[in-house]
Amino acid sequence: MIFKPGSQEAVQALQHLYSFVRTDWQNKLGKRSTITGYLNGLYNAHPNSKLGEIAHQLMIVTKMSEEEYDDAITLAEATSSQFSTETRRDNMVHLISLYLRTGQVQKAQSQFNSFKSTYPNNEIYKELLQDMLKSNPNSGLTKTATAASPQTVESESFKTESELPTNFALEQNYPNPFNPTTNISYQLPQEAFVNLTVYNLLGQKIRTLFKGPQNAGSHTLQWHGKNDFGESVSSGVYVVRMSVKGAEQQFVQSRKLAFVK
Q1: pLDDT digits 0-9 by tens, 245-255
Q2: 251 occurs within a structural domain
Q3: What are the DSSP calls for 117-184, one per residue?
């Protein structure tokens, strides 16, 4: 079947193909080493289409995952003004994490200032980026707390205690490090909208664990070390971030968790 380069079907086909190749850890297909060239060809052939835009973005992700940071920076800095708002936003996030990874703190700070000016209402990303910059002793940033936008997804494994807590809190996960499952507990003193999401240290979203309204109480869910596609993540340190919007209070807290194989 042949799809038009600008169609949603073509984009979805590329994303599925990319996910399939990149999770072929034993390289049974023999395509892992050639995927970047394939993406580059798509981008050069269709630079002004949605297919080319996604191919360009996947090239950045590939270079980051292969720790070819200079190449990833070059690609991200070349983001076209014709790309969608979402892609330009994501590439700005990539640049900040890449600048920090390569010790370019001033560039990371400058890019973060540009991000705040360009996306003043994107509180989720601003908070995550502030956390990333704050962890660098040269950044001089302080942390602020904000809330998220509404949408509901299903949690992986969930239970609620009956006694009401007095404060919002995200507890340290246990066990930590973990394999294959860890428990994540949090406290809600009032009914609130909760967004509980796992990110990697590059600021990329790995899995949404829970997103929606929730009653007051002490809650526990489990993360099984998988991303939103149901694929097992690689060993490493991840960040679970909880943002809460209640009737009387907003709250944000993050915890680091280590997945080992």
Answers
A1: 988 788 999 98
A2: yes
A3: HH-TT-HHHHHHHHHHHHTSTTT-------------B--SSEEEESSPPSS-EEPPPBSSSBSS-EEE
